[in-house]
Amino acid sequence: MEKKKKVLMLATTAAMSAQFNRNNILILEEMGYEVHVAGNFRKGNPISDEAVREFYHWTKDHGGRCFQIPSTRKVYDIINNFVALKKVIKLIREENYEFIHCHTPIGSVIGRLAGRKTGTRVLYTAHGLHFFKGAPLINWILYYPVEKFLSRYTDVMILINHEDYNRVLKKFRAKKVVYVPGIGIDTEEFKKHRSNRQKMRETLGLSDKDFMLLSVGELSGRKNHEVIVKAVNELGRPDIKYFIAGKGKGKDNEEEHLKKLIEELGLEDRVSLLGFREDAPDLYAAADAVAFPSNREGLGLAGIEAMAAGLPILTSNINGINDYSINGETGFSYRPNDVSGFAEGIAYLADNPEWSRKVGEENIRRAADYDYHIANEIMRGVYSEVDGEQ
Q1: Does residue 66 contact residue 59 with C-beta atoms inside 8 Å?
Q2: pLDDT bracket for residue 3 (50, 70, 90)
Q3: Per-residue pLDDT at 201
Q4: What pLDDT sits at residue 194?
Q5: Listed residue (276, 269, 207, 220) closest to 242, CA to CA
Q6: Mean pLDDT over each residue of the chain, to the nearest integer
Q7: What gap in Å lies between CA 235 and CA 372, rounded to an integer?
Q8: 99 Cβ contact partners less than 8 Å away, ≥ 6 residues apart
Q9: Regarding beta strands 33-40 and 65-68, do their DSSP bridges make them parallel or antiparallel, or are they unpaired?
Q10: Please, what is the angle between helix 137-150 and helix 105-118, to 10°?
């Protein structure tokens, strides 16, 4: 019996592969590959332990295997990440992978150094480089030199926004550079739930006169929900209700900070923390607009999901979000900490429902460019090209 070809999917944490690599794993499975997943399954995952276990079993059900390595997202955790590198090198030599597909900054460093050491080809998907226009200087100092140097050991470098793609294409030395519109979303799924609007609004305690503003994303400083809470406070309008769906985890957990801020501003009747939700499409259906004010995003699926649901979006004007958020066309965009700007945008959308409706309908068309079928087709092409080079 002919042995299956093997691929190693490598990321710092298991959560990254669980959240962003299932489609890639399925594509490789269809191509006849056995996919192994390496990452930290025990620590540092911004998803529940139950979700990590589910992904572990999902991978095995699809003919793959999972390997624990002690990698962490901390650039200064040299000991654990060095141990992870040694384990990956050993794993590659034992399993004889056709190629490695790595993700995340630390995962990509480990993957490319291991590929260099073992002579294994390496693909790297950067889910938003840490250095971008407007990024803190420390990000450029820490990440830019490392990424540029290691690009010479990268057979295919895959970028999910145009700013990163153009910079890598011009400045770096990867053998091949590819743009892919993220992992894609199921645009049809969000259309199906639009009829659930009234039922969900009743569940949330909203009247027909209330303007529902929604944010979907973890309660972290990077997601920057605080700026919208402050904008709602600045408006002082009881008809504007702000809901945040997401949970906090780890050192960047902002849940307690947000609760305290809401209480201090007396916004308990206007701002609600919904916790982790599995019914995001129904929440989008109930909403009138979505706020996505992140300080950093490689692309940001929540903004695209909102567009697919037919909503205007209020976003920050930074790196990946700028690929699809166009001020005055998809909604409004502002500097991440522009409280007054966001307040003005919220009020305009609330007071101009017909304009908001037209923007939302146009956003459905724009979101089609990010459908998962498009992303899958590009990745299938990338994998096929690498497969043909064997």
Answers
A1: yes
A2: confident
A3: 96
A4: 82
A5: 269
A6: 95
A7: 38
A8: 7, 8, 120, 121, 122, 123, 155, 386
A9: parallel
A10: 20
